[in-house]
Amino acid sequence: MLIISDLHAEVDGKPILKGLSLTVNPGEVHAIMGPNGAGKSTLGYVLSGRAGYEVTGGSVTFEGRDLLDMEAHERAAAGLFLGFQYPVEIPGVSNLNFLRTALNAQRKLRGEAEASGAEFMKLVKGHAEDLGLSMDMLKRPVNVGFSGGEKKRNEMVQMAVIAPRLAVLDETDSGLDIDALRVVSDGINRLRSPERATLLITHYQRLLDYVVPDFVHVLVAGRIVRSGGAELAHELEREGYGAIAA
Ligand code: ADP
Ligand code: MG
Ligand code: MG
């Protein structure tokens, strides 16, 4: 599904990713862990196609296509979902309008029929109810005035409605209380299926108690220095990144 090969990227002329390789197959959940400044968010931004993150070497293939050659909206339409630590606020655009536009843009690019108003509302209401987001919140402008926990809930509703092939979530657990952490974990776990995959970028082991990954990778100074199973996260929690990276 996703093949990252010897990826090099820089920001402001400063090399950040220095030969990162990673393969994600359908059905798998991978966790990327690492100390602050390791390049975790940079990896997320490079996958999203954000301006200012310049790829200087290597390749990224998503479902057989050259991801780096695709525009950000093409990546989304191809089934890539990116959730970031600080979700954007979009004043003047209601959550419902935003979701409907995102869903239909994807369907259109896949050559599928747009969702009717009734179909769309049924889909959104079901997911919002499951994830504890009220109708009132759905009518409000995207993320404006939402608490940290509400933004995460909202992000999980977006993800559930869009049902991406690959979700890349960066520090989606940061600053969450235990209830919000459960919501986020539920959102991720509900999307687990043999056709979908998740790349969880996190500094802390906590989220991985709720979303048990198939693989854990340790990113240090722009490279994956170690890979293992879920137990590697516990080892990191016990021993710290220093011991692993040494
Ligand atoms: P992590 O998410 O693992 O904490 P980041 O990818 O955010 O790491 O950052 C990796 C390195 O890149 C850090 O040294 C950071 O200061 C630098 N960096 C990230 N984004 C920018 C930017 N927009 N401008 C300049 N330096 C940046
Ligand atoms: Mg950081
Ligand atoms: Mg980060």
From TrEMBL:
Which InterPro entries does the UniProt entry name for this protein?
ABC_transporter-like_ATP-bd (IPR003439), ABC_transporter-like_CS (IPR017871), FeS-cluster_ATPase_SufC (IPR010230), P-loop_NTPase (IPR027417)
Q: Which residues form the ABC transporter domain?
A: 2-246
Sections of the chain in a coiled coil: none
Q: Which UniProt keywords apply?
A: ATP-binding, Nucleotide-binding
Which family does the entry's similarity section mention? Belongs to the ABC transporter superfamily. Ycf16 family.
PANTHER family membership? ABC TRANSPORTER I FAMILY MEMBER 6, CHLOROPLASTIC
Q: What is this protein called?
A: Fe-S cluster assembly ATPase SufC
The organism is Sphingoaurantiacus capsulatus
